[in-house]
């Protein structure tokens, strides 16, 4: 059964069906009016028959206004179905003829069924059709060809209308998501062009002039070159990433660091994580790589290892730099230098993960960041099921 809140997420098709149902209900009133007019001389209670038609007209107007103002709220739907059942019962008395066969309100009964199908889907539509058909059997002479035909038509109408609404809801959602992705891609491409024409050109110039000048300027040029390479990789990964249903492939975010001094090892299959989780974990990895470039000699090698065991994702950043003395991180935090404490450990802790830093003088440094998969678990389950 489709949730009652789908009115907001599928306003397009539900609004169109509600308007079509409004027209249908008013037109369908012509059925009992026409048959009643043709059999007017045979009606046992013609005045009551006329009053019933007026009541049905009034309720049709009231129901359509209720739906228009308040949407398909449960109170309106249940009331509409109850009034329809009462109308079926009243018609067996008010529209009775001297032949013993009452005039039916006919297609008008389907109005409430269509409303239920539009609001709550095919199952609810079929149930509403069955309820109205059961009332017809109870008050209009039991099971015979006429009531059986009405039952089949009402149940099928509710089921088919609900199914079409559900298909429309899915189609609208996909179109909306496609439009959002298209707009996002166009904006990224515009930003990529602007960055290429400004920031990347400046970084390339700094790298080239630094190499020409030499000395400390050469080191600045090397850092500028590394940042230019990382920024180009960022633009490529953001502009052409694979769609993962609102998730991000961690490999593309970490892979942008690959270069002459950075080696990245990752699984052959995507490592999907919720978008924000992936961004924060990638930011922590970037901070660890930046620490190596800032505190280690030029040419220090860095290895990034991405592991996915289904329950959690772990990224290890290891370098062959000079390492750190025991207690160095605690001393840096006490001095107010919170790069590791906040940029790395703080981010991972907020994601519900853990961080381990292993280092010793002359043996390099290893930073292990492990984050539980959380809502990205579906991806891990899918891989384990392969």
- Largest sheet, strands/sense/barrel: 5 strands, mixed
Low-confidence region ranges: 1-10, 239-244, 375-386
Indicate the radius of gyration in whole angstroms: 35 Å
Number of strands: 7
Tally of individual domains: 2
How many distinct helices? 15
> Kindly, what is the distance between the CA atoms of the first and last residues, rounded to a whole number of angstroms?
31 Å
Q: SS-based structural class?
A: alpha+beta
Order of helices and strands: HHHHHHHHHHEHEEHEEHHEEH
Beta-strand percent range: 5-15%
Shape, per Cα inertia axes: rod-shaped
What is the average per-residue confidence, as pLDDT, rounded to a whole number? 80
Domain Histidine kinase/HSP90-like ATPase: 276-375
Region (Disordered): 362-386
InterPro entries: DUF5931 (IPR045975), HATPase_C_sf (IPR036890), HATPase_dom (IPR003594), Sensor_HK_TwoCompSys (IPR050482), Sig_transdc_His_kin_sub3_dim/P (IPR011712)
Pfam family, one: HATPase_c
């Amino acid at each position: 059964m489709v949730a009652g809140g789908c009115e907001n997420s599928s306003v397009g098709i539900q609004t169109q069906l509600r308007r079509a149902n409004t027209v249908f209900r008013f037109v369908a009133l012509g059925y009992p009016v026409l048959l009643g007019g043709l059999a007017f001389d045979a009606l046992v209670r013609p005045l009551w028959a006329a009053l019933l038609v007026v009541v049905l007209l009034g309720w049709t107007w009231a129901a359509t206004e209720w739906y228009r103002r308040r949407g398909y709220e449960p109170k309106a739907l249940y009331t509409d179905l109850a009034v329809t059942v009462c109308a079926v019962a009243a018609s067996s008395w008010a529209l009775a003829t001297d032949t013993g066969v009452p005039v039916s309100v006919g297609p008008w009964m389907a109005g409430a069924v269509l409303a239920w199908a539009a609001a709550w889907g095919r199952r609810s539509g079929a149930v509403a059709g069955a309820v109205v058909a059961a009332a017809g059997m109870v008050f209009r002479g039991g099971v015979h060809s006429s009531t059986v035909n009405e039952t089949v038509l009402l149940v099928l109408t509710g089921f088919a209308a609900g199914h079409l609404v559900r298909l429309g809801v899915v189609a609208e959602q996909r179109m909306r998501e496609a439009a959002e992705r298209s707009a996002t891609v166009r904006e990224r491409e515009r930003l990529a062009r602007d960055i290429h024409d400004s920031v990347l050109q400046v970084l390339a110039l700094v790298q080239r002039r630094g190499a020409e000048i030499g000395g400390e300027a050469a080191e600045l040029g090397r850092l500028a070159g590394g940042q230019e390479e990382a920024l180009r990789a960022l633009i490529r990964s953001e502009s052409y990433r694979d769609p993962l249903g609102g998730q991000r492939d961690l490999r593309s975010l970490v892979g942008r660091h690959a270069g002459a001094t950075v080696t990245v090892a990752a699984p052959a299959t995507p490592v999907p994580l919720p978008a924000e989780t992936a961004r924060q974990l990638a930011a922590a990895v970037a901070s660890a790589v930046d620490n190596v470039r800032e505190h280690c000699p030029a040419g220090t090698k860095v290895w990034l290892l991405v592991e996915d065991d289904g329950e959690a994702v772990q990224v290890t950043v290891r370098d062959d730099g000079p390492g750190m003395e025991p207690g160095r991180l605690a001393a840096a935090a006490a001095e107010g230098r919170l790069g590791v404490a906040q940029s790395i450990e703080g981010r991972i802790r907020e994601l519900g993960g853990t961080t381990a830093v292993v280092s010793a003088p002359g043996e390099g440094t290893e930073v292990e960041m492990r984050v539980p998969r959380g809502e990205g678990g579906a991806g891990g389950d899918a891989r384990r099921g392969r």
